[in-house]
Each structure stands twice: as structure tokens, then as C-alpha cells.
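Quick start: what a row looks like.
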Amino acid sequence: MAIKITTMSCADNLQGKSHWWGFPDLPKDVEWPCRSDEELLTFICQIRLEEIADLDSDNQLPHNGMLWFFADLDYFLGDI
């Protein structure tokens, strides 16, 4: 399954919505992901599953909740 994501600038409050960068809406009992040396990973985006449910015709994903994406950007980009 592939989904094309189109982004746009937005001045709205993005809490509980899909968005790139900034801060994730992690549940209170979920810690920010980190590397084995406890260095925090960079938040990439969160995808609200309700917003993409119509695109998931094969029902491969739950249709409620949130997906969060984090990465070790320092590993890939180096010290720039």
C-alpha cells in the first residue's frame, strides 16, 4: 500500500492531527523514543489513521489511532 502525502502550511493548532516536525501527541505513558545511548530520536511526523482510512481498501491498518515516525537523523546527516 502506498499513500501520497500532500503538505501545506497551517497556523491551526495541530494537536491530535496529522503533521510533520514539531512535537508528537504521544500518550502520557509512552516515552519519547531514543537510541541505545539514550539520545532522543528526531520526530518526523504523525499520521492520524482516521484521515487515511478511506485509502486503506485492503484494511492493512487500524482505522483509528495514530502512527508516529521517529528517526536517528544525526546518524544519517552527521554533525552539520
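That is the whole record. The chain has a mean pLDDT of 85. Residues 6 and 36 are 33 Å apart (CA to CA).
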